[in-house]
Amino acid sequence: MLGILGGMGPAASAEFYRRLVELTPATCDQEHIPCIIWGDPTVPDRSTSLINHDDLPWPKLKQGILGLKAAGCTQIAIPCNTAHFWYDRMLELGVPIKHIADTVAEELQSRDITSGTIGVIGTKATIELGLYQTHLEKLGYDCVTPSAQDMETLVQPAINLVKANNLTDAHQLLMQVIDNLYLQGVDAVVLGCTELPLAVKENTFKGRPLINSIDSLATSIINVMLQPTLF
Questions:
Q1: Which residue, 4, 86, 97, 122, has most beta carbons within 10 Å?
Q2: How many structural domains comprise the chain?
Q3: CATH assignment at residue 25
Q4: What pTM value is reported for the model?
Q5: Are residues 135 and 200 in the same domain?
């Protein structure tokens, strides 16, 4: 049983489940992955808490993990990047959790991008605290991120627009950010906030890959959940 710790935000969680279904190689209902979605949109804003150095999201995150564990979930996916700053503490609650940054690295390698420079787009906290940079640089990648001006005038406004369901305007802003990163010679760009793939549906831009963190998480989870059991 897969547990999905969602609600952060609701549209990203719904998109993750939709893509999980679409990417699963199933031919009938019974071949899909059983799952329980814990969708709690009342979790305090993760990025704000990280910037303010408080721990306000933790009680809700803990409640969600323990609730999914009690329901019998044997694997958990969290379609929210900033929630992964509490990853180690959530993992201590006793259920395996796929780290979204690890799944992005898996996706890069599956596309034969095993080195080079990777652009990363995400919330202010994701970028400033290095969620992806830490993981990818350990694997030998170099990382570049949007300028402070792009973060303030393009990225965060685009995320806010997605949360308000204005995907058209969000797309225009994000494509400017992506173009600016490609001007720096990146080999791929990671959409490192699960709101971003709701507005940016392209898989490539100017011949180079866009890595969708929702899809990378869904693909990795499918590979884990559909592994044959060894006796």
A1: 122
A2: 2
A3: 3.40.50.1860
A4: 0.93
A5: yes
